[in-house]
């Protein structure tokens, strides 16, 4: 898995090198690179950047994420779905779902066609190098039972795994690169740490525990600009009483991640980018209890470890190889959809080696 991630990073860096010294909007580069890496993990397939189907999938992902955020009030006022503005949004999202699911079905059929004779698995063929293979195996094993492993669940699960994995990780990296491009002293300190630890060696995941300042800087970007400021909604399974308030069964619970990450009760000067809050007195990485970018409890994000792999390898490798600067003063307010994304900006990359 790590080698696939590194391949994606090096491909993206070649594109950056071809634009060295020019202001670059990194969003498109990251969307293709991370999108392909995550798509390969989920579906066992990668795409050419100019493939029309891939460009359509990326467009649906980007626009759909924005529109789902705009349509959020429908969860609380369902009558809004009849207004022209929201009807148009819902129609776009539904059309995108049908298109995406058709693509997933074609990939599944291609996968099944390439299985051993008989269409099943033997002891030496797990088909579990990606989520699609693992899910299909369970569908085959449980085809005569009522179970979660249905084609409908397959479509929605694959969409969740790919869509959520790409958007949140890409957005976090965009914030991180924007902050280190602005705070040059932070960037230089990260690079010195990496130079001291790695010398001329390429960054590997096993090196990350020896790079506490890199970890702290990425975590501080996650805290200060919570990618999912409202968190992911949950629901009560039974009538509940909390601090004297009665919460009926089936109530939507919005965890409001932003309030936790920006609370002065838990974080001194919460509006300031200060990676040192993630370091202990010995300079080792230390995660505060009130830092929950992947939420917490039994429903914690199942992709946390993989997302960290992408963040550390992409973030660290780019800074190991490039100096980043901005052509104009940054705007850190962001744009709110289902995620909080940076406003359009461009970064200038210059090779360090």
UniProtKB/TrEMBL annotation:
| Keywords annotated in UniProt | Heme, Iron, Metal-binding, Monooxygenase, Oxidoreductase
Provide the cofactor list for this protein: heme
Q: Which GO terms describe its biological process?
A: organic acid metabolic process; xenobiotic metabolic process
One Pfam family, short name please? p450
Q: Does the keyword Heme apply?
A: yes
Question: Would the keyword Oxidoreductase turn up in this protein's UniProt record?
Answer: yes
| Gene Ontology CC terms, in alphabetical order | cytoplasm
Gene Ontology MF terms in the entry: heme binding; iron ion binding; oxidoreductase activity, acting on paired donors, with incorporation or reduction of molecular oxygen, reduced flavin or flavoprotein as one donor, and incorporation of one atom of oxygen; steroid hydroxylase activity
Chain sites annotated for binding heme: 301
Q: What Gene3D superfamilies does its record include?
A: Cytochrome P450 (1.10.630.10)
State the family it belongs to.
Answer: Belongs to the cytochrome P450 family.
Name the UniProt record assigns to this protein: Cytochrome P450
What species does this protein belong to?
Polyplax serrata (Common mouse louse)
């Amino acid at each position: 898995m790590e080698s696939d991630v590194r391949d994606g990073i090096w491909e993206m860096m070649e594109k950056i090198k071809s634009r060295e010294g020019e202001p670059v909007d990194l969003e498109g580069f990251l969307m293709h690179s991370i999108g392909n890496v995550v798509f390969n993990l989920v579906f066992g397939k990668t795409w050419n950047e100019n493939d029309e189907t891939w460009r359509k999938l990326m467009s649906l992902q980007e626009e759909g994420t924005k529109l789902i955020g705009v349509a959020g009030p429908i969860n609380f006022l369902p009558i809004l779905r009849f207004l022209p503005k929201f009807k148009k949004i819902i129609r776009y999202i539904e059309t995108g779902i049908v298109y995406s699911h058709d693509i997933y079905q074609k990939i599944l059929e291609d996968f099944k066609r390439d299985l051993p004779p008989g269409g099943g698995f033997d002891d030496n063929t797990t088909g579990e190098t990606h989520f699609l293979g693992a899910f299909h195996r369970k569908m085959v094993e449980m085809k005569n039972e009522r179970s979660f492993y249905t084609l409908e669940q397959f479509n929605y699960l694959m969409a969740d795994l790919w869509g959520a994995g790409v958007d949140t990780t890409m957005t976090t990296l965009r914030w991180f690169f924007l902050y280190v491009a602005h705070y040059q002293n932070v960037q230089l300190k990260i690079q010195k740490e990496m130079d001291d630890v790695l010398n001329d060696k390429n960054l590997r995941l096993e090196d990350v525990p020896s790079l506490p300042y890199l970890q702290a800087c990425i975590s501080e970007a996650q805290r200060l600009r919570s990618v999912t400021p409202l968190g992911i909604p949950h629901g009560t399974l039974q009538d509940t009483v909390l601090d004297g308030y009665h919460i009926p069964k089936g109530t939507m619970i919005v965890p409001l991640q932003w309030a936790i990450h920006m609370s002065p009760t838990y974080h001194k000067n919460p509006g300031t980018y200060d990676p040192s809050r993630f370091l202990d007195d010995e300079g080792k990485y230390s995660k505060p209890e009130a830092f929950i970018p992947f939420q917490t409890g039994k429903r914690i994000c199942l992709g946390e470890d993989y997302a960290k792999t992408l963040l550390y390898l992409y973030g660290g490798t780019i800074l190991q190889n490039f100096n980043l600067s901005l052509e104009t003063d940054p705007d850190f307010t962001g744009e709110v959809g289902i995620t909080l994304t940076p406003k359009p900006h461009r970064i200038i990359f210059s090779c360090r080696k």
